[in-house]
From TrEMBL:
InterPro entries: Aminotransferase_I/II_large (IPR004839), NHTrfase_class1_PyrdxlP-BS (IPR004838), PyrdxlP-dep_Trfase (IPR015424), PyrdxlP-dep_Trfase_major (IPR015421), PyrdxlP-dep_Trfase_small (IPR015422), TyrNic_aminoTrfase (IPR005958)
Keyword Transferase: yes
GO aspect biological process, one term: L-tyrosine catabolic process
Name of the protein described by the UniProt record: Probable aminotransferase TAT2
Cofactor(s) needed for function: pyridoxal 5'-phosphate
SUPFAM superfamilies linked to this entry: PLP-dependent transferases (SSF53383)
One GO molecular-function entry: L-tyrosine-2-oxoglutarate transaminase activity
Length: 350
């Protein structure tokens, strides 16, 4: 009887590798007498560096919302209506159709948006297609939801484009979705309109949902402009994940979103929407006063703030790219054009 109890308590933990886990391991094995600092090169937190600051508009909007004492209670589980409306209008600027407030669900950062999305799509025996290289949290969330993970490769010689032939070979009737990260994390790439269109056509052919991770949306400083995957929502249904974290430089505010880019309604069946709403009922969303500040943050942030961030990212990425050339054991197969990341390799032709 005692052995049975121990077996019930012996819960299997996914063995997926995460950046935070690696950093924790390094820190734990660093000699306490060694004064050298372990620098993380894998966590996209711009606030860790003194050159990145959010706009005064954002800070003042949060302070005003907090001091008003109107937002100390719980918010609706899908988010405050004005915040959902502001995000719908913000994202609709770049789309050939208009999103409604009902298409938007607020989350505690983009990580929670990932967790919710995979949870509502997961069913016994199903699989999901993830990019390699990619963001490790997808693999970790999929493992916890017992989704079989199938990795497709990104091609460095083609700007880290998706290997669409590999995607078609991996997918089957049990594939629920494919994840696209654009701008790329950790590769620093930005996909062209043409390539995104091909991805959408492939998803349509395979009958799968596209999960578009656009947490670095608009942070593009190369030849390719940022194009939202939602532009192709009429070809294949898209669930867009994003947040204020990167573009507004406030990852600690934990204000993210999950958006249904599905103008034809092929995904938004009553059962699916009900499942999504019920799942948000059990998840704690962003702080109510942060949500209350969203309309002001989005409507009143000036373009000069965004341009300053883009210029700084381009400058620092150029420095990083050039300095990597001086390190003989690694190389950068593709110069970054977006996000806050660069991918290196130890197998480049020197």
């Amino acid at each position: 009887m005692e052995d049975e109890k121990k077996q019930n308590l012996d819960i299997e933990t996914p063995n997926n590798i995460t950046i935070k886990g690696i950093i924790g391991l390094l820190m734990g094995n660093t000699d306490c007498n060694d004064n050298r600092k372990v620098i993380s090169l894998g966590i996209g937190d711009p606030t860790a560096y003194s050159c990145f600051h959010t706009t005064d508009v954002a800070q003042e909007a949060v302070v005003e919302a907090l001091r008003s004492a109107k937002f100390n209670g719980y918010s609706p589980t899908a988010g405050l209506p004005p915040a959902r409306k502001a995000i719908a209008e913000y994202l609709s600027r770049d789309l050939p159709y208009k999103l409604s407030s009902d298409d938007v669900y607020l989350t505690a950062g983009c990580t929670q948006a990932i967790e919710i999305t995979l949870s509502i799509l997961a069913r016994p025996g199903m699989n999901i297609l993830l990019p390699r290289p990619g963001f490790p949290i997808y693999g970790l969330c999929a493992a916890f939801r017992h989704l079989e993970i199938r990795y497709y490769d990104l091609v460095p010689d083609k700007g880290w484009e998706v290997d669409l032939k590999a995607v078609e070979a991996l997918a089957d009737q049990s594939t629920v979705a494919m994840v696209i990260i654009n701008p790329g994390n950790p590769c620093g790439n930005v996909y062209t309109y043409q390539h995104l269109n091909k991805i959408a056509e492939t998803a349509k052919k395979l009958g799968v949902v596209i999960i578009a991770d656009e947490v670095y949306g608009h942070l593009a400083f190369g030849a390719n402009a940022f194009v939202p995957m939602g532009v192709f929502g009429s070809i294949a249904p898209v669930i867009t994940l994003g947040s204020l974290s990167k573009r507004w430089l406030v990852p600690g505010w934990r204000l993210g979103w999950l958006v249904m880019n599905d103008p034809d309604g092929s995904l938004k069946s009553p059962k699916f929407v009900e499942r999504l709403k019920k799942y948000t009922d059990i998840c704690g969303g962003p702080a109510t006063f942060i949500q209350a500040a969203v309309p002001t943050i989005i409507e009143q942030t000036h373009e000069v703030f965004f341009r300053k961030t883009i210029n700084m990212l381009k400058q620092t990425s150029d420095i990083c790219f050039e300095k990597i050339k001086e390190i003989h054991c690694i190389c950068c197969p593709y110069k970054p054009e977006g996000s806050m990341a660069v991918m290196v390799s130890n197998t480049c032709n020197m």
